[in-house]
Design a protein that fits this description.
801 residues; 11 strands; CTL-like protein 2; 4 domains; transmembrane transporter activity; Choline_transptr-like; two-stranded antiparallel ribbon; mainly alpha; transmembrane; disordered N terminus
Length: 801
């Protein structure tokens, strides 16, 4: 018995002739897997109810409570229970895109109310009394403010950044004090905050011959806003400074422009420092690394337009490449195969030569813990080159044998690749269909994250008694004593902020000379701090429900996209005369999937969601068991993780083909998966060959387009220095290469779906039809020529095939 006969007996007989089968059915379809669709609808309804409950009972303010410089949450932790708002010493330092990653560097303190007036030490220190200045002063701690007895001590505290140097009338937004501009506030804004050219010209219009910063500030303070406006109006005929805006508008505009420009410059500097620190790990010399980081960031900022143009050209090139693949797929594939074989031969020659050289050249091990020393030691070891030469030689032999044995099937793969190119070119809208999936993915992510945040905020807050850290990262050792209801409070144990604040005090500070012995000083270095929100059991299950909902919905969106594309390309294949492909084929496939096969999509995505959830649970268990360091449990978990990874990979492959069969025949998921599996197993060698060959071809195509984009960008930068001058042309080139690879991956993802769909259609075509007038082959002439088949059709029926 031959191998093909054994496969047929094991996986079913080939598909029989069916006089009523002419390709994907359109009008006589019925809804598939309706129970699973109802289950999915009920699940979404439950998810919606959980979302509504979470929004109603959750409070994101619990998760967005600001923390001061001592890591105390305003309005929650001990010591700041009645101080719900966060005040920034220098708010302009927080206008930085890197703040979410690095944090705002300015000192921050919790206050009861945001400042309702303006304070500028440099301009008010000589005009206001000490009592007025002291009342406006905002310091890190109340103790620091209480110890200030005169203006000299106040100046020292401000110079040491213990108190704010200046602030503007502010309003609370999300419990954070932000600037509130008004015409009166503009009078007190010092000149060093107004850096735009126009604001400086307006100040120079003031009477007198003031030229220095101090004189300008003094004149701005001396004149009222009405007087300044009148003086500027008197200069209305001057060509130097025409005024067309209200003073408050000018103030707000000029300040915002100056701050934003300055912060963007600081952003470049901080990005340069981050890049420099990263480069320092691989580059000798900290100063050189910092300079290199600055140059890289500067090149990125200056070349963003070149990068965008290169990405757009890559997109156009991808479309043109797909159209040309119908004629050039065979030369490209064979050239790629022989190129790989030649490259492996060159690799064998080079590795053997390096092995012989280092075997005859004794070397001394380079001692060092950096990456450069490690790489150098590895490259100077003759065993490294021996193992590499063996590996490269084995790869060469295996690929060469596969090419010799599978040469006929490679020709089939080439022909199907051409067919896929024709299908994509004929229905070009499929290339942009993934944009629809991206929008749905983003919406699903936003919904799941929002529900998760609201659910996470439901519950009682738990607190722990902790010690603060010094600037050097050392733990403080404050003698904090607790009495009464708080007598059992210990470091690291649970506590109540109100009880802690009433019954815990600093024993040493309370008995010092500065304070009276009867006066108790609250603990400042030890606090009852917020730890976490303890969710009720039902909320934990709701969070679990939300995670599973996101997995199911994300797989559902991906499956829906795959089935729509499969239905589109299947309709193209089973149209005998390709010029007769219906208009709006993609739209019809979309409606067909939405009206009839959402249940099948829900079924397949449910299986993958369960498998992925099991993998996540295993990862969670593994993270919890790491502290026990048990080799047996690690081995078991490793095997289980590997098994479920393989299972998920197989299920993705099976689901993809099940969706294709469902798009063709309109059967339910189980029947489609069974038919697809049997059809594939009856043509196992063809499937393996096609899958690997097409993947290899697509990878080479992406590599070709990516390399072309990178080389073109680099060539343009080198030969056009007058247009743009950069420190390193490789910086924008690298960004273009990464972006080009991502763009081409999206395009060839659709291409891969087209080839997979056409391949299953091709297998069905071979088993169902015989080339007779009643059952002609739907495949292209090239495929029929490779397989030795032909259609015995009348001349009139052959036209347009």
């Amino acid at each position: 018995m031959t191998e093909s006969e054994e496969l047929m007996n094991k996986y079913g007989e080939p598909l029989r002739y069916d006089r009523n089968f002419t390709g994907p059915r359109q009008r006589d379809r019925s809804c598939t897997d309706v129970p699973c669709l109802l289950l999915f609808a009920l699940f979404l309804a439950g998810w919606g109810f959980i979302a509504q409950y979470a929004i109603k009972h959750g409070d994101l303010n619990k998760l967005m409570v600001p923390s001061d410089s001592f890591n105390r949450k305003c309005g929650i932790d001990s010591g700041v229970l009645n101080k719900k708002n966060l005040f920034f010493f220098n708010l302009e330092q927080c206008i930085d895109p890197l703040v979410p990653l690095t944090g705002c560097p300015t000192p921050q303190v919790c206050v009861e109310k945001c400042p309702s007036q303006t304070f500028v030490w440099d301009t008010m220190k000589n005009s206001l009394s000490f009592e007025d200045l002291h009342s406006r002063l905002i310091c890190l701690t109340e103790e620091t403010k209480a110890q200030i007895r005169n203006k000299e001590q106040m100046n020292n505290a401000i110079q040491n950044n213990l108190c704010a140097r200046w602030y503007i009338k502010s309003a609370a937004f999300l419990n954070r004090c932000l600037f509130e501009f008004s015409p009166q506030v503009c009078e007190y804004i010092p000149a060093f905050l107004l850096r735009s050219g126009r604001s400086r010209r307006e100040l120079t219009l003031l009477p007198g011959n003031a030229t220095t910063e101090v004189e300008l500030e003094a004149k701005a303070m001396a004149l009222s806003m009405a007087e300044a406006q009148s003086l500027v109006a008197q200069q209305g005929n001057s060509k130097q400074s025409p005024v067309e805006e209200e003073p408050a508008t000018q103030c707000r505009r000029t300040l915002n422009e100056a701050v934003i420009k300055e912060k963007m410059m600081q952003t470049d500097t901080r990005l340069a420092k981050m890049v420099g620190n990263l480069v320092a790990h691989f580059y000798n010399g900290t100063h050189d690394a910092q300079r290199l980081g600055e140059e890289i960031v500067e090149d990125l900022v200056n070349s963003w337009s070149i990068v965008l143009v290169a990405c757009f050209c890559t997109l156009i090139a991808s479309l043109i490449f797909i159209a040309l693949m119908r004629w050039l797929s065979a030369p490209i594939l064979w050239f790629s195969i022989f190129g790989v074989l030649i490259g492996l031969l060159v690799g064998i020659y080079y590795t053997v030569r390096q092995y012989i050289f280092w075997e005859k050249t004794p070397t001394v091990t380079v001692h060092g813990l950096n990456l450069h020393s490690t790489v150098k030691n590895v490259l100077q070891n003759q065993k490294t080159w021996l193992y590499l030469s063996i590996f490269v030689a084995v790869c060469f032999v295996v690929i060469l044998l596969l090419v010799i044995v599978l040469r006929k099937r490679i020709r089939i793969a080439i022909a199907l690749t051409k067919e896929g190119s024709k299908a994509v070119s004929s229905v070009i809208s499929t290339v942009f269909f993934p944009i629809f999936s991206w929008v749905l993915f983003i919406a699903a992510i936003a919904f799941a994250v929002g529900v998760g945040l609201y659910l996470g905020s439901i519950g009682q807050a738990s607190f722990r008694m902790v010690r603060q850290l010094t600037a050097d990262g050392e733990v403080t050792n404050e003698p904090c004593v607790c009495e009464g209801p708080a007598i059992n409070y210990t470091i690291g144990g649970s506590c109540n902020p109100e009880v802690f604040q009433q019954h815990c005090y600093n024993q040493q500070a309370s008995t010092s000379g500065f304070f009276q012995q009867s006066q108790r000083v609250a603990c400042s270095k030890t606090t009852c701090s917020f730890d976490t929100i303890e969710n009720p059991p039902l909320i934990k299950w709701a969070i679990f429900y939300n995670v599973f909902g996101f997995l199911w919905l994300s797989f559902f969106i991906s499956a829906f996209s795959d089935m729509v594309l499969a239905a589109t390309f299947a309709r193209w294949y089973w149209t005998f005369k390709k010029r007769d492909v219906p208009y709006f084929t993609l739209t019809r496939a979309f409606c067909q999937t939405a009206f009839y096969h959402l249940g099948t999509v829900a079924f397949g995505s449910l299986i993958l969601a369960i498998c992925r959830l099991i993998r996540l649970v295993l990862e969670y268990i593994d993270s919890k068991l790491k502290k026990y360091d048990n080799s047996v449990t690690r081995a078991i978990l490793c095997c289980m993780r590997c098994f479920f990874w393989l299972l998920e990979t197989f299920l993705k492959f099976l689901n993809r083909n099940a969706y294709i069969m469902c798009a063709i025949h309109g059967k339910n998921f189980c029947s489609s998966a069974k038919d697809a599996f049997n059809l594939i197993m009856r043509n196992f060698l063809r499937v393996v060959t096609l899958d690997k060959v097409t993947d290899f071809l697509f990878f080479l195509s992406k590599l070709l387009l990516t390399a072309g984009a990178g080389v073109s960008t680099y060539y343009f930068l080198v030969n056009n220095p007058a247009i743009i001058q950069l420190h390193h042309n490789a910086v924008p080139t690298t960004v273009v290469v990464i972006a080009a690879f991502l763009i081409t991956s999206v395009f060839f993802g659709v291409y891969s779906t087209a080839v997979d769909t056409l391949f299953l259609c091709f297998l069905e075509d071979c088993e169902r039809n015989d080339g007779s007038p009643e059952k002609p082959f739907f495949m292209s002439k090239q495929l029929m020529k490779i397989l030795g088949k032909k259609n015995n059709l009348p001349p009139r029926q052959r036209r347009g095939k």
